[in-house]
Design goal:
By secondary structure, this protein is of the alpha+beta class. The protein folds into 4 domains: about 180 residues, Thrombin, subunit H; about 120 residues, Tetratricopeptide repeat domain (Serine Threonine Protein Phosphatase 5, Tetratricopeptide repeat), CATH 1.25.40; about 90 residues, Serine Threonine Protein Phosphatase 5, Tetratricopeptide repeat; about 110 residues, Alpha Horseshoe (Serine Threonine Protein Phosphatase 5, Tetratricopeptide repeat). The strands form 2 sheets. A 6-stranded antiparallel β-barrel has the order 1-2-3-6-5-4. Strands 7-8-9-12-11-10 form a 6-stranded antiparallel barrel.
């Protein structure tokens, strides 16, 4: 009996000595430990230990509970419940998640340790417990490794379920690591990921809005840096639905109330989705009041108005007009005459059919830092729309000259110039461009290319080349009746009547209902002085609706 009592007292003595080694800082660190409960549809999915960290008192814990969660709460050391508002970061490699709660000012975050930890050092497991409940347990470090630039600790401790996600602190009460599940089959050790993982858990534009854990509907928080948050907002506008985009805008404005970007985004959203132009105008005015970059606000407004007008909606509100869009853009240009705004104005003018004004803008841009083949090409398109083919060709000459050292880039413009030259009546010059394009591309050109060049050659009275090209077009596309008719017309022009008639016999098989085939057969037969056959052909063409067949029949009487 005395021996048993002695052993018990000795045991208590050593425990008290060991307990005496645990500093006040370690004990106090328990105030930063919490528990997280995750739910789906009101049903509890599970719970785990967490710790408050960082200047916003975010919650650092394991991500294992959140695969299907739609809500979560955090219970602090005093027993107070805090709703989780957002996911502030997560990473599957580290198995950790960072949660954000509201009204965290009175909570005490745990400091992150920056001290180096070596094998043999003693750390402390700190558990969750309301007020004085819970435990502190010392543990020795067996090994220190690195996991993707983050410390990874092997501990001389057999892993138990109650240890999972517990914070591991040093004698100063600073967070060193977070406990993680041991690999299957390992019953001798425990493992923990270094506290530096906290700073690696950040929201980015690639995953904002949908949460980080597949299946969760808890939204990610916008980053705390405005530029990063703005990137998330722009990405959400592209990939998110209208509701999530609206939520992102509201969150951005709430988080950065002095940033004009949020009000600009909100104005656009209201204009596009609600056509509430009065409210949108108020948001644009708020944006103007928040920045000295008024030109950017007016530019954004012009783009919104123009996009709605181009969609065909000009009746929802009197503000929705091309004139108002141009007025907003001109205001932007008056405040900051930068080429980007002039380029957009040129595009607007072109889209609304004012090709002369658009051409003037594009040519002006060729004298700025936006001088490029594209600007000359757009000016050329304007002149082409105006049937000013000489100026159109001149613009394309500039393009080809600029890209002279880059033939692969220049050749599409050479082909375009060939087509414009043909329209301008510069047929032989057009053929030269066609030839240059063919020489560069080599084999593999389609029938349409040879058909287009053949037409330029015919108009340039280059008949042998034209015959060669139309034959090639027929060879490449033998089922297209247009090419046979084109060849027959050329045969008529050069008085190859028999060849033209043979060609049209094939066209009749491909297009038996074509009035052009029979009309042209009639003309070829007239050329051969085969008047009876010609009459039959014209009568057939007339029955099929050819507009000139009747005149030809009258001429045969």
């Amino acid at each position: 009996m005395r021996k048993t009592l002695f052993i018990l007292l000795l045991s208590l003595f050593f425990c008290s000595v060991h307990a005496a080694k645990i500093s006040k800082e370690v004990t106090k660190s328990r105030a930063s430990v919490a528990t997280v409960l995750a739910y789906k549809g009101g049903e509890l999915l599970g719970s785990c230990t967490a710790v408050f960290v960082g200047d916003k008192c975010d919650v650092l814990t394991s991500n294992r509970l959140f695969a299907n969660a739609d809500s979560a709460v955090v219970i602090d050391n005093a027993g107070k419940v805090h709703a989780v508002e957002r996911i502030a970061g997560a990473d599957g490699i580290y198995g950790c998640i960072r949660l954000r709660i509201a009204n965290s000012k009175k909570l005490k975050p745990m400091a992150l340790s920056t001290a180096k930890v070596a094998p043999g050092d003693e750390l402390y497991l700190v558990s969750y417990g309301v007020k004085k409940n819970g435990f502190v347990e010392p543990v020795k470090v067996a090994k220190v490794d690195s996991l993707y630039s983050c410390a990874y600790y092997t501990l001389e401790l057999s892993m138990q379920e109650r240890y999972n996600t517990l914070p591991l602190v040093n004698s100063a009460g600073e967070l060193v690591a977070i406990m993680q599940s041991a690999p299957l089959g390992d019953t001798l050790h425990s493992y923990a990921i270094g506290a530096a993982v906290f700073d690696k858990l950040k929201v980015s534009s690639a995953n904002y809005g949908k949460g980080y854990i597949q299946g969760t509907s808890i939204r990610a928080a916008l980053p705390d840096v405005e530029a990063d948050a703005l990137s998330c907002l722009y990405m959400q506008a592209i990939v998110g639905d209208s509701v999530s985009y609206k939520n992102a805008i509201d969150e951005f404005v709430g988080k950065f109330p002095d940033s004009y970007e949020g009000y600009v985004a909100r104005a656009e959203y209201i204009a596009v989705y609600y056509r509430d132009m009065e409210t949108a105008e108020k948001e644009w005015r708020k944006a103007l009041a928040k920045t000295d970059k008024g030109a950017e606000v007016y530019f954004a407004k012009a783009k919104v108005l123009n996009s709605i007008v181009l969609s065909g909606d000009t009746i929802s509100h009197s503000m929705l007009s091309f004139e108002n869009a141009i007025a907003a853009l001109d205001k932007a240009i008056s405040l900051d005459n930068q080429p980007l705004y002039l380029s957009y104005k040129a595009d607007m003018l072109y889209a609304h059919g004012d090709y002369a004004a658009a051409a003037t803008c594009y040519e002006a841009l060729t004298q700025t830092n936006m001088r490029s083949a594209l600007m000359f090409s757009k000016a050329s398109q304007c002149y082409e729309q105006l049937a000013d083919y000489n100026n159109s060709v001149a613009m394309l000459d500039s393009v080809v000259s600029m890209l002279g050292k880059f033939p692969q880039q220049a050749m599409p413009y050479v082909l375009t110039r060939a087509l414009v030259k043909s329209k301008a009546g510069m047929y032989r010059e057009s053929v030269k461009d066609f030839n240059a394009y063919e020489s560069f591309v080599g084999s593999g050109l389609k029938a349409e290319f040879y058909y287009l060049r053949e037409q330029a050659e015919v108009n340039g009275k280059m008949y042998q080349q034209a015959l060669n090209d139309i034959e090639t077009a027929i060879y490449l596309s033998p089922e297209n009746p247009v090419y046979y008719i084109e060849k027959a017309m050329l045969c008529y022009r050069v008085k190859m009547s028999d060849e033209g008639i043979r060609t049209l016999e094939k066209a009749k098989e491909l297009a038996p209902g074509s009035s052009d085939v029979y009309y042209l057969l009639g003309r070829l037969n007239v050329q051969k002085e085969n008047f009876s056959s010609a009459k039959e052909c014209f009568e057939k063409a007339l029955s099929l609706g050819h507009p000139d067949a009747g005149k030809q029949l009258e001429s045969l009487k």
